[in-house]
Design brief:
The strands form three sheets. Strands 1, 2, 3, 4, 9, 10, 15 and 16 form an eight-stranded mixed sheet that branches. A six-stranded antiparallel sheet has the order 8-7-6-5-13-14. It has a two-stranded antiparallel sheet with strand order 11-12. With 223 residues, the protein is mainly beta. Helix content is 11%, strand content 44%.
Length: 223
C-alpha cells in the first residue's frame, strides 16, 4: 500500500510539474535572444530546454513567425510542444532523432486524446545553424510558420499574444517512434506532460527578420 501511494505521488509530480520561470538567453550562434523555460521530466533533474524567439514589431491578436530552439537529453525517445498549452485543437510540434541521429520535426494536430495526426497547419523549417549534438544532448533550431495562430472551435481564431505570458505544454516519452525515419510515424503514449506560462515579451528581437534570412540562406530545409 505504501509503495502504491508513493508511486502515485511521484507519478503525479512528474505529470503535472511546472517548468521554471522564463529567462532571457542570447544565443550568439543564431544571433537571436530567446525566452527560455526548462521542463523537467525526471525527478533526478533531467529535462528539456525550450527557447522561443519572435519579432519585436508584432501586435496583439496577430499571426507571426517564431523561431524555436530545443535542447534535449539523448535518452528522450520523442517529445512534443503544444503551442496552445493542451494536447487537443492546437498546433503540436513532435520531435525525435532518426537512425542517423538527425532531428525529425513532425507537425501534428489532435482533435481528441488519441494519436495526434500529421498536419499542415504549422510548417517547420529546420536551420543547420543552431542544430547540433554531443555525447549527452542534442539541439535543433527551426522557424515555425503557423504556430502562433489557429482556428478554434466555432471558427474563432486563437492567438499567442506577444506581449506577455502564454500557456505552453510539453510531453515526453522514452520510447522512439515505430518508424523514426518518417515524420508521420506512429508514436507511443507520453509518459510525462507538463504546463508552464512562457514569457513572450522577453522573446522579442528587433533584428528578427534579418537573423531569420541569414539563418535560412542556403542552410534552411523543410522539416
Amino acid at each position: 500500500m505504501l509503495w502504491n501511494v508513493l508511486f502515485t505521488v511521484i507519478a503525479s509530480l512528474l505529470r503535472s510539474v511546472s517548468a521554471a520561470e522564463s529567462v532571457a538567453v542570447h544565443d550568439a550562434e543564431t544571433g537571436l535572444t530567446y525566452s527560455q523555460n526548462f521542463a523537467l521530466y525526471k525527478l533526478d533533474g533531467r529535462g528539456i530546454t525550450f527557447r522561443i524567439a519572435i519579432p519585436s514589431n508584432v501586435s496583439s491578436n496577430s499571426a507571426y513567425d517564431a523561431v524555436v530552439q530545443v535542447i534535449i537529453p539523448n535518452d528522450v525517445g520523442w517529445a512534443g510542444l503544444a503551442w496552445g498549452g493542451s494536447m487537443t485543437k492546437n498546433p503540436l510540434m513532435v520531435f525525435w532523432r532518426d537512425p542517423n541521429n538527425q532531428p525529425v520535426l513532425s507537425s501534428r494536430w489532435a482533435t481528441s486524446h488519441t494519436l495526434p495526426q500529421p498536419s499542415t497547419a504549422a510548417i517547420y523549417t529546420l536551420f543547420k545553424t543552431g542544430t547540433k549534438s554531443n555525447s549527452t544532448h542534442w539541439q535543433f533550431t527551426a522557424l515555425c510558420t503557423g504556430c502562433t495562430s489557429w482556428a478554434a472551435d466555432g471558427g474563432a481564431v486563437r492567438y499567442i499574444q506577444p506581449n506577455g505570458g502564454n500557456r505552453l505544454a510539453f510531453a515526453y516519452s522514452p520510447t522512439q517512434p515505430s518508424n523514426p525515419s518518417s515524420p508521420t510515424s506512429a508514436i507511443t503514449v507520453h509518459e510525462v506532460h507538463a504546463y508552464w506560462n512562457h514569457d513572450f515579451n522577453t522573446a522579442r528581437n528587433t533584428g528578427f527578420q534579418a537573423a531569420v534570412q541569414r539563418l535560412l540562406g542556403s542552410q534552411g530545409f523543410r522539416a
